[in-house]
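Posting this for the archive.
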Amino acid sequence: MIVADTECCAELQGYLPFSRGGVGAPGAGEEQKESRARRGPRGPSAFIPVEEVLREGAESLEQHLGLEALMSSGRVDNLAVVMGLHPDYLSSFWRLHYLLLHTDGPLASSWRHYIAIMAAARHQCSYLVGSHMAEFLQTGGDPEWLLGLHRAPEKLRKLSEINKLLAHRPWLITKEHIQALLKTGEHSWSLAELIQALVLLTHCHSLASFVFGCGILPEGDPEGSPAPQAPSPPSEQSSPPSGDPLNNSGGFEAARDVEALMERMRQLQESLLRDEGASQEEMENRFELEKSESLLVTPSGLAPAEVLLPLTSDGPSLALCSASPCPPLMINQEWSPLCSMPRPHGDLFLTWSSADILEPPPHPDMLCFVEDPTFGYEDFTRRGAQAPPTFRAQDYTWEDHGYSLIQRLYPEGGQLLDEKFQAAYSLTYNTIAMHTGVDTSMLRRAIWNYIHCVFGIRYDDYDYGEVNQLLERNLKVYIKTVACYPEKTTRRMYNLFWRHFRHSEKVHVNLLLLEARMQAALLYALRAITRYMT
């Protein structure tokens, strides 16, 4: 996947027309122009202009390529280039990634790549499926297995149930699922094998979220010709988030949004200093409210060919969260289905066509690795349905329970997992858009806890009122889409949130998404193992 050798640096230089290290030598520029002309005007992401990748992070990635953690037998791929906008995190990520897939462990290397294929296929992530199919063959995997799950050993097929639960509804995992896999028999799993498989499954599910959330494009073929572009509305091609896709006053409106966020953060910090926190009962009620409101950004039903959405002076009063089915609509704080005729909210409307909420059909080459393909994310709490009990984080924490269990059963991975979670959660440059010297901990915590909230995890000591204060509607829409059904993410969703922020800050959101989602799924799985063992 990533390698710090001459070939690797040369490939990276293809994205670095103005970098140092001899690229500016006579004749080098012409060669790069010809190479880029063959490749086409594309970078590593469908969402981030290649110039922005160069400006914000390519030099940092180049400086970190010598890290031992990044040594492998692959190449610099598009995922690494985008993740390299945050090189300290990339280092932590790669150490775990390399351990899971390339070092000695309970599972054979080819089996690990096949498990990664199974995980990525749940989200139709062709980028990861293709990568791991190639590595599966390189590590001696049987080509017959790539014809579909039905050609794989029974032992691997037994992972399908827990794979789909981890990918879409991890709160349904019970000790009975663990018992079924560990039950003595010809195709049983050992506990050490199962732990490695579960970590690998959650790693690849969350990595699929990152791929879709950042619009990672497949690499071109060896000749440098471009790979297919990710689907998106034609009008959205290369539109920068600093410009407003909604109206011509985007720069002013987006800057005003930043100032409003800064003011809300200041007010919340002052209230904390005055010890004006909510009571325990109020915080519990606010969590339940946030959990219930997350229902309203869940796709349901089919989208009409064209819908009209009311537009306020602050932007669209829409909580669009899906690339395909019909999302709900909020009008004056009252929610009604989008399929119903909205009541007017002023006389200005924004038109969204069905092209803006396009969902690619399931790819047959990936469906062969998936059982029960219609099974997907369903809200933790649904009206009219029996809700599963809330996962109280204090009852089973990563720090006190999950980490210690992993350390016992998979000691090589426990420490690296913990370092990766911490690298994402604590990552900060003390900047917000055009502001510097900012304490961003409150905002990062709100994003992390909101992701856990949509997976039914509650922190008793956190006031979920902060989520509504700090996370704008479009950001919530984006977060839930990328975390819960990433294959439905569109460029428009990416462009609509934090319109005045740097691309590296949006990638930072995706790092929090990746890690919070992975930790949430792991907590449910590890709790089930703990219950099985006791």
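The radius of gyration is 23 Å. The first strand starts at residue 306 and ends at 312.
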